[in-house]
């Protein structure tokens, strides 16, 4: 049980310059006994209202140095404060506020909402177990209008899809990776120094002047995983899900026109989905 | 990988009387090799477009006798047709069309959309493993305006929640149960004969003339599980998640009024959540 | 300016029996001067927080006898209390809680959320003008699987739609009518006595044993309007919008099957829309 | 009646460089007669399917030079082709794809979805009337963490809001302006040359090094209107709606802490709303 979508803004000021971190936190606990379920005995139950208060108090006291550090702080607090907690998990996602710029000059206290991929993290711990930290990005929608195809696939009497070597590849990415058992990482430093987001975009798109051919969604997913694993040594395992939107080249023959991939109709349902988890060992074997 | 949200309507006619079943199907496969991820070799890949075609062909040929039977048909088809499939999972949810009635008379071909709880099911199978079937109901929102409290819980310096013995209990239920390894069940018969939906409503509400006191969300979740397990012998394990909306009694003192639980404000975020999975063995022990 | 989505639950008790009315209220004002826009002078501005308080105080004091009466109470309060208010409009929609029944017996304090059409109303008044009241129902989704066609329409070189005399008609209805300048109406009585909802369903569906042929969405919209105007003398003008979802009979020839309108695919975008407003005068002329 | 959410992507290629314009189009017509409503006579009805075809054919033939030009092309086509059309309105909104950049280098065929404000336009025409064009931006969410207050407002017994001279101002902007009766405008040129979006951001935020004090949402709305009208001579009238989210400074006294505007809770419902339409004449008078 736990509390979902605890939303708040943590405002930090350095002189006249303001920094904002707005987050949604979900914290879930499992207790050492199930007596509240079986007998309605609440004596060891920490109310979800108290869970919310603790999250807000920690935000006030420690600030949010990084999403990951804050998730670890919350897990640590519950494990060290409450002996009746057998397991704790905290998920945090960030509201994508970006500092406004006017003619290239950053504004000291104005921000704009830019949801081009949402950063999130997760920390979890069992009593007597390690604290494990995950991070990721979701709702990242990308499109490439060529350098994508799908050929040589398995065919039988139910196959109606034609082979194509030039199609649009468009999809929403969910990427989540594990930092393994956590040492003293500076998570935002890893994110920015290793340019994780840039890695993902680059693996999807290929070089800016020519792109890179994708023979399938599966291969594109694998490329993203391989590049992140090779560029970010702290990442142990990476899961990528690509929910793709198919763009159908409209047949305009009955309207007397030849449509040379100029007008395409997005097909939102059904959509394909392709998921893969890749770890270090598997990586070196491959 | 697979195909999500394959939406279609299966229309069945008996004379002038029409029967509709509109569903959303998601079918996912895992293949015996990962060469399409690692090498971009698509030779054993069944396109998601073919997956969609197969689902639609099965619907046309077999109809949808019940959601569960249709999910099993799909899994069976993939396992028996494609030797490269190592695992198949199919999720189906129903669009809640109900037959219209005029002055109590059922209409032969008119329907109304009534989303008061969505039925769904899931079937999954590994090669050489059993076909396992789950069923459930989700998005079922219930409220009781009294006979609910929360007292005697654990308190410390972060506790600000007062004890209450008369509060509103309101939440959205997700219930999912397993029928175990499947024999020749008539699933719709189990659903209707055992009145599973009615069980859930009754366990939540208590007797119509007086209700039944709930000492916590956890206990209510447990009551639902216990009643379903006791009334429906085919159910092996049941998971219930209750996402509750808190209704705050508005303090109107500064407006010169005494609010005797007459005006309440729903608090949508954050919301509490409480989940539990209960199986037969645990049931008899309890 | 104003306050949107003021959400609250009004609980009314008669002995042990509870009655709930949960609503969302939006109240907007226009003031007699625009000095707050032009000069930033707030001296006559009623804060939206005060608007919210007033709505809640009225709910506490008067209860919600009907949505329409409550909307009128709010408008009256603003007009009589604040001379700087030039115009007030209040929109209210109801959260669709229905009393639970167990084996036909109504439960004294348990409710279920059944969103099969949302009731709403609107009241508006200019200073020195009449108080005008509207009511309606929205998000009402209906389907008939036959007795619908579309033939004899205008054709040119851009027409690819075939004529059809047997198609599925499925759509979401928005109906809003005016009660004109308001006298002392008992609005819930009008709603229930005249069976407005039943009128709409009946005009859409036709008789339960055979239905009624619809030659177009437009004609169905008109039928609904005509029936409501003829059955409910208090209604002055009625607007109906029908947003229809097209169900495409899937061509399965390339899969070796003949699909006799058994498998249909809903096309959610684009969707057709058809709106019409019909008043008494026009009605009698027609 | 008409067709809503006609979604398509128009792909334009210049050598290896690709340009995408994905849009949603809604086109509505009113015919010169209402016989299809009253008599079910469809002989002058242009099917919504034909409307869709025409939009797609125009996109194929003309491309989408700008949203506004494309909306005008559609209106012109219906007015000149069909004498039974009495009125036509076309609304278009853009799917916010932006070209990807790698280390500052633009990618030739890869794009990212960045919904930080959605551009839209509207064109409408009555037979024998002028073609009027509107343009706008919606879903633009902005926040400033200081330089905002609300003081000196009207107070009575229902006022509980304290005066504040330092609060967070956060809201979603909807801006729509009219270009009046349309001459041969190059609409994208007006948009980019006059930096309309930048105008709105600047009027909201003030100078980057210090901001500008906002005494009310109303005054901020007015500032945006005044700046756009003064910087963009082609704009005749501008409507701005600001739906604001209130950020509540959490009282942490009962948790033993002093919260100096460091932890704030967003209040999503109810939210205030403030709308104003300002034209040239009013502008000069002000």
TrEMBL record, chains A, B, C, D:
GO cellular component: peroxisome
Record EC number: 1.7.3.3
Family matches, as InterPro entries: Uricase
Binding site for O2: 48, 244
Binding site for 5-hydroxyisourate: 48-49, 150, 167, 218, 244
GO biological process: purine nucleobase catabolic process; urate catabolic process
Reaction it catalyzes: urate + O2 + H2O = 5-hydroxyisourate + H2O2
Localization (cell): Peroxisome
GO molecular function: urate oxidase activity
Membership in a protein family: Belongs to the uricase family.
Annotated protein name in UniProt: Uricase
Species of provenance: Formicarius rufipectus
């Amino acid at each position: 049980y736990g509390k979902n979508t605890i939303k708040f803004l943590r405002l930090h000021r350095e002189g006249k310059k303001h920094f904002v971190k707005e987050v949604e936190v979900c914290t879930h606990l499992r207790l050492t006994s199930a007596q509240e379920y079986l007998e309605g005995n609440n004596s060891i139950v920490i109310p979800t209202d108290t869970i919310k208060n603790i999250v807000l108090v920690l935000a006030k006291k420690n600030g949010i140095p990084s999403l990951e550090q804050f998730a670890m702080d919350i897990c640590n607090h519950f494990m060290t404060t409450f002996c009746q907690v057998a397991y704790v998990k905290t998920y945090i996602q960030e509201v994508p506020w970006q500092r406004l710029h006017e003619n290239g000059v950053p504004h000291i206290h104005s921000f704009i909402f830019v949801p081009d991929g949402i950063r999130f993290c997760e920390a979890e711990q069992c009593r007597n177990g390690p604290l494990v930290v995950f991070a990721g990005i979701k709702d990242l929608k990308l499109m490439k209008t060529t350098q994508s195809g799908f050929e040589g696939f398995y065919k039988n009497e139910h196959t109606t899809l034609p082979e194509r070597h030039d199609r649009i590849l468009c999809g929403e990415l969910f990427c989540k990776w594990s930092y393994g058992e956590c040492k003293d990482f500076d998570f935002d430093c890893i994110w920015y120094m290793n340019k994780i987001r840039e890695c993902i975009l680059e693996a999807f798109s290929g070089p800016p002047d020519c792109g890179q051919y994708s023979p399938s969604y599966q291969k594109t997913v694998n490329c993203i995983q391989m590049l992140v694993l090779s560029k970010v040594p702290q990442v142990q395992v990476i899961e990528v899900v690509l929910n793709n939107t198919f763009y159908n080249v409209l047949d305009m023959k009955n309207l007397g026109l030849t449509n040379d991939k100029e007008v395409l109709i997005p097909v939102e349902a059904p959509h394909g989905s392709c998921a893969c988890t890749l770890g270090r060992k598997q990586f070196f074997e491959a």
